[in-house]
Description:
Blueprint: H1 9-12, E1 17-20, H2 28-40, E2 42-43, E3 52-53, E4 57-60, H3 66-71, H4 77-83, H5 99-115, E5 121-122, H6 124-132, H7 138-152, E6 157-158, H8 186-200, H9 205-212, H10 216-225
Parallel strand pairs: 1-4, 5-6
Antiparallel strand pairs: 2-3
Helix pairs in contact: 5-7, 8-9, 9-10
Amino acid sequence: GAVQTREGRFSRAKGGTLFLDEIGELPLHLQVKLLRVLQSGDYERVGGERALKADCRLIVATNIDLNQAIIDGDFREDLFYRINVIAITLPPLRARVDDIPLLAEFFLQKYNARHQREIEHLSPDLMQKFMRYGWPGNVRELENSIERAVVLSRSTMIQETDLPGEISDLAPASDDMFSVPIGTPLQEVERRLLNRTLAFTQGDKRRAAQLLGIATRTVYRKLAEQTPLEI
């Protein structure tokens, strides 16, 4: 239905770098189109009539386990091998707590400048809780928390009352541990873990999928496969 030629992502990235975030959430019909570009190096603009040559570096990112997504039928295996040339695995924020003070300071200065504030630092007690918190949303959750605190703080120091409600208590990460008895069937372990994670995210299926390293579609499918418990 296009009535005019439009410049797409590959065209705009010509001679540079194209970054595709959350590649694991790309619908299957678009995965086919991306694979075709990567294989042939050619693409067509929306509304265009001739093939153009792609000329850019491609970088993709994902929060899910693409190997599991392939098994679940949510991600094409041939596309995976096309994009998995050089893989960089970044540990979750809770596994690199020494980065938290540095990131918190960076985001503090960033949002001080953006919102024209002069917040000097986080309270020492709050920083200690930051170091103990599990950060299920990783760096983005930390960044969003700092921005909100910068906007709401009424002093030159960020305190607990300036934090989002969902993490204001900053429960230690150990409170989020999950365990099952030895010998529990794998299917039951999966069911309990999924339901426990959904309870932790207050029903947010997208966030639960990110924590579990699977596609959001997989969460919906596995919930549909669960048989009601007999009472």
